[in-house]
Amino acid sequence: MINPNPLAAYTVRNVKTFIGMEGHGFNATLCRDGKPIAFVIDDANGGCLHFQWTIPAEEAVLEAVCKQMPPTEFEGMSITYNPDRLLSRLVDDHENDKRLKRIAKKKTLFRVKGDDPDEWRTLNITGKTASLYLAKKYGEQLETVYGQE
Predict the structure, then answer these.
(1) Exposed, middle or buried by CB within 10 Å (0-12, 13-18, 19+), for 86?
(2) Residue 89 in 3-state DSSP?
(3) Which residue blocks in the chain are alpha helix, DSSP H?
(4) Could you read off the pLDDT of 76-97 as tens digits, one per residue?
(5) pTM of the model
């Protein structure tokens, strides 16, 4: 079976963020199918990302996967997919997941039908009490509860 999203094989780990000369930067290990393939640095100087390939052949594989992705339209421009864009997205997703996990320790995060996929509502209780309350209050309108997908 062909993977509908070839980028799904890529993840990051060991992410370290910092403030650099021109904004936020990061160091991260890029993995494909869970195996480390490169160490990546965004030194926050306004330039491109730096890839240190542990498996050099993976560079061509990643370039080919990025070329398969359709361009994104943004403010009338067509933006093509590239490894820098992929890594930035992966690190952003990693940092957002970390933030949501921290919030979910004390609050229940949830969405109802019609909410933006990147937006979460919160309830100041957790556990079974929260689940029962949400089911009673929102019923069929309850789309998802974070951590219970």
Answers:
(1) buried
(2) helix
(3) 57-68, 83-104, 127-138
(4) 898 888 999 999 999 999 999 9
(5) 0.79
- Amino acid found at 48: C
pLDDT of residue 149: 63
Give me the phi and psi of 120, to 5 degrees please.
-120, 140
Token pair for residue 134? Answer: 């949400």
Task: Output the pLDDT for position 117.
Answer: 86
pLDDT in tens, 28-78: 999 999 999 999 999 988 888 999 999 999 999 999 999 888 888 889 898
Q: Are 106 and 123 in contact (CB under 8 A)?
A: no
Amino acid at 28: A
- Angle, vertex CA 82, rays to CA 81 and CA 85, nearest 5: 85
Q: Classify residue 37 by its DSSP letter.
A: E
Structure tokens at 136: 């009673």
CB burial of 38-73 (b: ≥16 within 10 Å; e: otherwise) equals: bebebbbeeeebebeeeeeebeeebeebbeeeeeee
CA dist 16 and 27 (Å) reads: 5
